[in-house]
Design brief:
about 15% strand, disordered N terminus, 8-stranded mixed β-barrel, 5-stranded mixed β-sheet, single chain, about 60% helix, 16 strands, alpha/beta, 26 helices
Amino acid sequence: MVFGTGTRPSWVGMADNYQTEISVREFLPEIKAAQATAIMAAVKSSIYFNLCISASAVLIAVVVNGPSASMFVWLAIAHTILALRLSFQRGMDARFVAAGRADTALRVLSYGSFASGMAWAALPFFIMDFNGGGKDAFLLLIMVGIAAGGVIRHIAYSPVALTFAMPPMMSIVLTLAVEGSSASTILALNVVGLLVVLYKSSVAGEATFANNELGKLRATRLANSLREANADIMQKNARLEVLANCDPLTGLSNRALFSSRLREHIASADAFGQEVALLIIDLDRFKSINDTLGHSAGDSVLVQTSARLRAVIGSKGEIARLGGDEFAIIVTGTDAARTARLAARDILKKAKAPLTVGGGAFVIGTSIGLAAFPQHAETAEELLACADMALYEAKERGRRRLQEFNPRLKSQADRQRQIELDLEEAIRTGSVEAWFQPQVLLNNREIVGFEALVRWTHPRLGYITPPEIVQAAQVMHITDKLTAHIAAAACRLLNRLPELGLPEATVAINVSPREFSFYSLADVLGLVTKQHGINPALLEIEITEEAIIDTSIVGNELKRLEEAGYKLAVDDFGMGHSSLAYLISLKIDRLKIDRSFVEGVANSRHNQALIAALIGIGHTLQIDIVVEGVEHEEDVEVLRVLGCRIGQGYLYARPMSPDKLDGWIDAHRQTITARAVA
């Protein structure tokens, strides 16, 4: 550490890695001038800052310890030193640099810095009964802070920084050491460590500053080149920042920035007792735009939608594109939930106006979920989850609507999540079971088959409905395991049926059309039937009607099932839009008429006409007809007259576990015999 040009500066050794000491000395006056200029630019604000901090320190000391003349004496001394330094700053130092006496200016600046540092070091000794580890700890904290600030502020020249920082730091160490307690000793050691860090940082900072100046002086052309390169880097950094925080298509905030801002808003709202409302917005049927008109049309929809959102929200909230066709809006304030609710209704209203896409006009429906902090959630993650649940409910309830979160949605989501977590283990242990409902001939009640229905009683949640089970299997990507499990149960029953006097009875299993895109049903069933030695002709595959028209997904798979010999049945026939061509080409074996047509058919001519028409289609195509939901004797006669051959419903039996089938079959045969005798 030096104050004159005749001494080798401490940072010269650091420059030796790429410059010789001779080169450093060649430019030493210019470097000193740059250091003096930088320090003088920092000293003025530092002096004013010291004036305020010293006055604040005395004021706090008076509050803690009561008024004391010595404190005001110290304040007068400190302010006098600062006034003298300020006077030099205004009247002398610039002339020194201009006259080539930067070294002298730095020396005087260092002396002034040292004087202020000594003033701060003396502060504890002007306070009666000073206790740095107790009531007066705030003063030590202020002294540490102002010392560290001095080092940071005067990084261009370490003597100015260290002559100011070292005296108060040494005073702190001395004060704590004199107190003699273990805590004070530990604190003193920490301060010593901090002092070492400040010293090294100051010297390294000066070296960095000096080396930068040296590089500028040695090669102006290189410096200009570096400035141009730096400008290019800054431009690229700015672009990277935009890419990191903004959606490149719409210019809205992206998911990363949205998540950060949501956390910040919740923290602020929590501190000031305000609300944060979150809207999650999804465009209905957006995928069909991409699929039919192309991704450029989809991009146009997203850009136009973002413009609409900006027009509605304005300065009332922050808009982000979370990805795909999903947007989010954060609204803050004391009445954020109400503001968001009104904004959502305005968005839905504007969504009714068509967008221009691919040369045509399209109305793009919008679904919105709303959740608010602190009413619905305590964290950003919970708030986003609640808004997502509300959005999902809006879609389930018909889309194109606003749905506000309520605890019921959370309860449903928690239930479904628990089902998802436990399902695979339940399949493995056999807790998920296949129950069977008989199918009988309507004319004589002879048993011709059974339908396998999935059942699961959860140890904590109780009865789990089949749709919940299927949905959980799809989410967890274990639909193949569920199908194989139910198919295996069906095969076990098929192996028992000859012993029960039903060698030609079939067993049907239900398969969701969505499963065809996840795995090969033909492969799974082929493996299961082979393991159990089952004739595929006795295993019936029931698919819902919409599967038949989605040829891109299910066409080839259904052909493979047909070629393997499985019976194919269309479930809930009449509820969808089946293609008659595919009913013929796929050689469907059975049509199952939905229970909604069967209920009360004896007293409904409308239902009778519909069933007669559906049966006519089946008979024309030589496809067997099964009616579901048969519950009343009077309906049986009407269905039989209409041409129905096979029925299934509570009139004959409810679904039952495999161990109850033997008893039911015996009882059913006795009933048939008794009816025949009568």
